Amino acid sequence: MIKKWLEIFIVSLRLGLTSFGGPVAHLGYFREEYVERRKWLTEKQYADLVGLCQFLPGPASSQVGIGIGMSRGGTVGGIISFIGFTIPSVLILMAAAVGFQQQGLIELGIIDGLKITAVAIVAHALLGMGRNLAPDNQRASIAVLAFILVLLIPAVWIQVAVIAASGLIGWWLYRQEKLPSAESLPVKLSMKFSAVCLTAFFGLLALLPVLKAAFDSLHLQLADSFYRAGALVFGGGHVVLPLLEREVVPAGLISESEFLAGYGAAQAVPGPLFTFASYLGMVIDGTAGAVTATIAIFLPAFLLLLGVLPIWLLIQQKPGMRAAAAGINAGVVGILAAALYQPVFTSAVTSPADLAFAALLFMMLVYWKRPAWLAVIIGIVGGIIFYGG
């Protein structure tokens, strides 16, 4: 098992060092590494996990990484996977808080090249998922409708609503059909453990504000603010940033200029955007503040996933749930297609040359079957050559 845990850490650390582009791009990198290359999950297992994590509040890509680690190496594997994927951006943003500046990367053109790489990687993931998860007219229609709704209604709640509606449509369309048995993740968690995690999730949400009011402690204030942000936000890292601003700037914990500087640094580093909490905690109270803020913002994601996953694995074996899952998986394809356009494509491709570069990287991934890490290296080199200035 130790060998498996070491493998999980090495693979997740490499992803944590190279996964630029935000939550949707992370899902593309994960699929390339864990489904296509290593075969740790099937396409359906991966899509089921993505659908569940999109439905839960918190950092969806981090939760997917935790779930994959758990499927490979148990609960410890999930923790190791999280640490490997998260620690690079935590350390970089802590360094940013004490003077490390990311502007040099922007001037070199590296960020521009990495944004275009993200376009190719997400498009590659979308192509494979669409082929496997929306293979017929009905599921293709669900995917297209999900794409349209998410694209035209830019609200935080729309992704959850689309997943729920896709599940209902899938149940209605396929409830009478004999579908293949569900491909459950090889995760063994008891219902008792699930109940403990869910109780802890809601208990901390209720208890931390009481403790903050009762005791004059900066760390309790940080724990309450960051735990609440991690527990209640849907839509990933981009949504949590303004929520954190309302928690720390009006309270006088950090200045507006310091917050904006950290916001820019968070956009320029690999890994989950939720590690912006590490920067804020470091500015507010040094290393201790960074540790408190980081644990507090990610803890809800752990507790929710550990609490809900056993229930999900049980109910997905029911025929009606398999029918709903067929619709949910198609809906996830549509959601990822919308995210490919906005923000991935619109923020990266601003000229014919950008589109040409993205097309070359896409061809390399799809037809030449080259790994994603090589696309990242080419993206960095291309960014320096074509966009540096």
Order of helices and strands: HHHHHHHHHHHHHHHH
Question: SS-based structural class?
Answer: mainly alpha
Q: State the helical fraction.
A: over 70%
Number of strands: 0
Through-space gap between termini: 48 Å
Alpha plus pi helix count: 16
Q: Proportion of β residues?
A: under 5%
- Biggest sheet layout: none
User: pLDDT below 50 for ≥5 consecutive residues: which ranges?
Assistant: 100-104
Radius of gyration: 20 Å
Envelope shape: globular
Q: What's the overall average pLDDT, rounded? A: 85
Membrane topology: Multi-pass membrane protein
Transmembrane segments: 79-100, 106-128, 140-173, 193-214, 264-284, 291-315, 321-341, 372-388
Subcellular location: Cell membrane
GO molecular function: chromate transmembrane transporter activity
Short synopsis of the structure:
This protein is an all-alpha fold and 389 residues long.
Key descriptive features of the protein:
389 residues; mainly alpha; 80% helix
Topology:
Layout: H1 2-18, H2 23-37, H3 43-55, H4 60-97, H5 103-108, H6 110-133, H7 137-152, H8 158-174, H9 191-214, H10 218-232, H11 237-248, H12 256-267, H13 276-315, H14 319-348, H15 352-366, H16 372-387
Helix pairs in contact: 1-4, 2-4, 2-6, 3-4, 3-14, 4-13, 6-14, 6-15, 6-16, 7-8, 7-14, 8-14, 9-10, 9-13, 10-11, 10-13, 12-13, 15-16
